[in-house]
Each structure stands twice: as structure tokens, then as C-alpha cells.
Design goal:
439 residues; Rossmann fold; 6-stranded parallel β-sheet; binds L-homoserine
Length: 439
């Protein structure tokens, strides 16, 4: 029988993810040793409170409140970073890589914010940096892009990459689940954003402070990483456009449903030569598209490569066990790949220019003043800015006329300019939502 290697490991953090990894190693350690020829011995685990009771079998001697006990121990070859937050996690990852340790991290914020520095450190020291668990939990999307699509130019990538917001939007769409069409705008509606968020928090899907999820920050970090790898050019976090879901109402969801769309917080990245657009925002997607069926807290990434065509990955993007599944897989990969030259796996081939203007169709909902000439005036303003109306619906309101426009493909800057001219004397703009038809 082949010898089994023992890899001395250090944990930074033993919260939900770290404890999930610990439990999975407890459960699967012997099978992994037999299958993969490697066993992980956790020598030290950084925790905030060494006396706190934990739902893991870690002996007290393993726990430490000092990061140095992990980062400065020459026996520790592999570090699992599961602290979350930008700092001190990013600095700890940098220190571990600098001293030649390989790192597996679940931390998309630290990674997206310090991408260049961490990749360059890994390259310079020959240490490996793995981050599959940081982007869509159990879904092997990083490895798919880097190890299975090398012969492709990836041109477009779409993702539902935040489970919390997908759960909330699915709840807000609940009356229509499974229906081909619905008279939702006039019939039954889903719950409000606030009620859906409350439910997500009660289930532990949303954080007590949900900002990072509901404002699109978490998805933006993941999109920066995904599009950087897909396009092989750094797509910086600060170059992304993002808008969250906090202004979405059941009325928007219901109208969209009537028009044949599901509402998703969609991450969109497109490359055209050296120009890239990357954005995260609420988006209507056609009900016939596979992404429209990704509901609840599930995630999916859908991309086009010039050779592979369309490809979609679907699964659990969060949760202790799904995330631990990706962490342990990366730990094994670090050993199998010899922990050398990790930075090279993510070699960039060029620079791109980030677009600040793009084309889309738009759903525009407004409450217009109900008097002669108002509709004509609004249509005139849109027309003067080159925004062409594809469909229009007016319903009866209470002294105000609810108006719903769907545009043909228009430029973002033109739509913004037109809407800024529509003041209260004509209408109040209630919501503007992107419509992605060309998925
Ligand atoms: N909070 C994230 C989500 C999981 O809801 O998808 C961690 O990135």
C-alpha cells in the first residue's frame, strides 16, 4: 500500500466554516487518507475565545488566540483561512504565503480587494493560493474555469451568485412558482422585501446586518474573481457597477412575471476585445432560460466559451457543509499539486478597460400624473434621448396613472439622461430594472 502523507495544517478561524471543515475532516478523514493518500493534522486553530464551547472535537491544546502560532510555525505547511472580513484576513494570507505556506481561503472580500498583491506574493514565493470555497461554496466553478476551459475564450458569464438575495427574491415571487404565466400584478403577490428578509434572517440565511448581501457587495466580490479568471485579465472590484435589491417590490416582481420574466440579482460580465463590462443588479431574465429556475438559496453560473458553447453549474453556494466540501477539496488539491507555483495557475494575459456605459433593455415603472398630454410628454423625452419603447402598459390608479415601459435595447447613459428629465410634474419614477434577453 502506498504511504499516506500527513500534512500539518493551521486554521485561521473556527466559526461556522472552520467548524464545518473540522467536522468534515472528522467524518471523511480516513476515507480521504485511503483514497487520496493524505491525512490532515490540525496543529493550531486561531479563535477569538479559547474558552468558548464549540461543536467540534478540537482539543484545547489546538486552540490559540494568537495568529502568530499559526503563521510563524514552520511545521505548518497549509493554512485554512476562514475568518471572513477584509482585515486582518488579507494580511494573514499574505504572511502565510510569504513564509511559503499554501493557503485555502473562503474569503472573497479579502481576495477580491487584494487580488494583485496576494497573487503576486504566491507567484513570488511559489506558494499556492486556493479559493474555490470563496466563490459559490460547493460549486466547482473556479476549477471549471481554470482547469477545464483553458482552450476557450470566455465571452460572457452570468451568475446567480448570492444565495441570500436569491432566497429573498424567490420568496417575493412565491405565488408564481411553478406557473407558466400569472396575472400577478393584479392578482396575488409575493411577500414584501422586508418580510422576505426577515424570513431569511430567521432561517440563518441572511446576516443580522444583511448589507453585504442585499446591496450586492458579496456578489460583486465573486464576480470580480470569476470574471478575472474567465477573461484572464484583472477585473477590479472597484470597476464593477452594482445595485442591490432593497428597492424591489412585489409589484415589480408581479409585473415582470406577467411579461414572462423572473427577477434575479444577476451578475453579468461581458468581454468584447479589451473592453469589459461587469455588473451586479436586479435583472429580469426570460422564464424560459435555465437561470430563471434557480430558486431559493441555490446558486448558478452560466457562461459561454467560444469552443465549449454554453455551460451551467448549479448548486449550494453557502452553508457549513457545502463550503467545507470545497475547502477540503482545495486542501487535497494543494497537496496533490505539490503546493508549488500556485500563482501561475491564474496567470493574466492582458489588461482590460472597464466599460462605464452599456446597452440593455429596461423595465421602467412610474406613477404618472393623470392628465392629458403627460404620456405623450414622457414618451417624447424617452424618444429624444434615443430610448425606444417596446411595450407600454397603463393601469388605473388613484389620481395617478401607473405606467410601465419596457424599452428596446438602449444605452445606460441615454436612459439615465431621459429619466433625469422626467420630474414630479410628469411622473415619479418607481423603479428601473434591467432586462437581459440575450443570455
Ligand atoms: N452570503 C453569501 C450568500 C454566502 O448568501 O450567498 C457567502 O458568500
Amino acid at each position: 500500500m502506498d504511504a499516506i502523507r500527513t500534512i500539518t495544517t493551521g486554521f485561521l478561524g473556527l466559526g461556522n466554516i472552520g467548524a464545518g471543515v473540522w467536522r468534515l475532516l472528522d467524518e471523511m478523514g480516513e476515507e480521504i487518507a485511503a483514497r487520496e493518500g493524505v491525512r490532515f493534522r490540525v496543529k493550531k486553530a486561531l479563535v477569538r475565545d479559547t474558552l468558548k464551547r464549540r461543536d467540534v472535537s478540537a482539543p484545547p491544546s489546538v486552540l490559540t488566540a494568537s495568529a502568530d502560532d499559526v503563521l510563524d510555525d514552520p511545521d505548518i505547511e497549509l493554512v485554512v483561512e476562514a475568518l471572513g472580513g477584509e482585515q486582518p484576513a488579507a494580511e494573514y494570507i499574505r504572511r502565510a504565503l510569504t513564509s511559503g505556506k499554501s493557503v485555502v481561503t473562503a474569503n472573497k472580500l479579502a481576495l477580491a480587494t487584494h487580488w494583485q498583491e496576494l497573487l503576486e506574493t504566491a507567484r513570488a514565493t511559489g506558494s499556492c493560493l486556493y479559493f474555490e470555497p470563496g466563490v459559490c461554496g460547493a460549486i466547482p466553478v473556479i476549477r471549471t474555469i481554470t482547469d477545464s476551459l483553458q482552450a476557450n475564450r470566455v465571452e460572457r458569464l452570468y451568475g446567480i451568485i448570492n444565495g441570500t438575495t436569491n432566497y429573498i427574491l424567490s420568496k417575493m415571487s412565491a405565488p408564481f412558482a411553478g406557473q407558466g404565466s400569472a396575472s400577478g400584478a393584479t392578482g396575488s403577490r409575493g411577500v414584501s422585501y422586508a418580510d422576505a428578509l426577515y424570513e431569511a434572517q430567521r432561517l440563518g440565511l441572511a446576516e443580522p446586518d444583511p448589507t453585504a448581501d442585499v446591496e450586492g457587495g458579496d456578489a460583486a466580490c465573486k464576480l470580480s474573481i470569476l470574471s478575472t479568471l474567465a477573461f484572464r485579465a484583472h477585473v477590479p472590484l472597484e470597476g464593477l457597477f452594482r445595485r442591490g435589491i432593497t428597492t424591489i417590490t412585489p409589484v415589480d416582481v408581479a409585473y415582470g412575471r406577467e411579461l414572462g420574466y423572473a427577477l434575479k440579482l444577476l451578475a453579468v460580465a461581458k468581454r468584447d476585445g479589451d473592453r469589459v463590462q461587469a455588473r451586479v443588479h436586479p435583472t429580469f431574465v426570460p422564464l424560459s432560460h435555465p437561470l430563471a429556475s434557480v430558486n431559493g438559496s441555490l446558486n448558478a453560473v452560466y457562461l459561454y466559451g467560444h469552443a465549449c458553447g454554453e455551460l451551467m453549474l448549479y448548486g449550494r453556494g453557502a452553508g457549513d457543509a457545502p463550503t467545507a466540501s470545497a475547502v477540503v477539496s482545495d486542501m487535497i488539491a494543494a497537496v496533490r499539486e505539490g503546493c508549488v507555483g500556485g500563482g501561475d495557475a491564474y496567470r493574466m494575459t492582458g489588461k482590460v478597460v472597464m466599460e462605464t456605459d452599456w446597452e440593455s433593455r429596461y423595465f421602467i415603472r412610474m406613477l404618472a400624473v393623470d392628465r392629458p398630454g403627460v404620456l405623450g410628454a414622457i414618451a417624447g423625452i424617452l424618444g429624444r434621448h434615443g430610448v425606444s419603447i417596446a411595450s407600454l402598459r397603463q393601469t388605473v390608479g388613484n389620481g395617478r396613472a401607473p405606467l410601465l415601459f419596457v424599452t428596446h435595447i438602449a444605452r445606460e447613459s441615454d436612459v439615465r439622461a431621459a429619466l433625469s428629465e422626467i420630474d414630479e410634474s410628469l411622473a415619479a419614477i418607481e423603479n428601473v430594472i434591467y432586462v437581459e434577453e440575450g443570455l
